[in-house]
Amino acid sequence: MAIDYFSIEPVTLAEEVFPGDTNAYGTLFGGRLMGLMDKAAGFSASKYAHREFVTASVDTLEFINPARQGDIIEVVGRVVFTSTHSAACKVNAYALSKSDWERKDICSGYFFMVAIDANGRPVPIPQFEPTTAEEKKEWELVASIRQHLLKHRHSKND
């Protein structure tokens, strides 16, 4: 019997960029942004399956534009692919200037999260089945990324 998932609604986090979050150019540290994106991925996977998740890998992280001190960062994560024990989350990050509240893309990527039990062992999760053409296209893309990651991981262990 298949277990139904709980929610495929995206998770949104928002933070202001403070001076301690920026480099010498006044732009947001990439690592700080990655941390927010990782958190959004974890929350969206947990919301989807009602499980604890840990990050297994990150792929295709693309920094598009900088965010500046004083901007509001909006990070949106959603589950786009599942396997037996893992959920892949597409995470998009945006910067909003408080002067005009115009939203600009700053980063996007895929976070692969593994569901774990209280002992840190992988546990099964409900399976997501794409229904729309857009969901199916994203599913196929992420399936190919996952295959590449698995192939690369196995070749490193040889």
Care to describe what's here?
This protein is of the alpha+beta class. The protein has a single domain (11-128), classed as Thiol Ester Dehydrase, Chain A (Roll), CATH 3.10.129.10. It contains two helices and five strands. The protein has helices spanning 30-49, 133-156; strands at 11-16, 52-63, 72-82, 86-96, 103-116. A five-stranded antiparallel beta sheet has the order 1-3-4-5-2.
Question: How would you briefly describe this protein structure?
Answer:
By secondary structure, the chain is of the alpha+beta class. The chain contains two helices and five strands.
The overall number of domains is 1
Output the strand order for the largest sheet. 1-3-4-5-2
Shape: globular
CATH architecture: Roll
Spell out the CATH superfamily: Hotdog Thioesterase
The CATH topology corresponds to Thiol Ester Dehydrase, Chain A
How many helices? The count is 2
Low-confidence stretches: none
Approximate strand percentage: 25-35%
Q: What integer is the average pLDDT?
A: 93
CATH class: Alpha Beta
Structural Rg = 17 Å
Helicity level: 25-40%
Distance between the termini: 37 Å
Specify the biggest β-sheet. Answer: 5 strands, antiparallel
Give the helices and strands as they follow along the chain: EHEEEEH
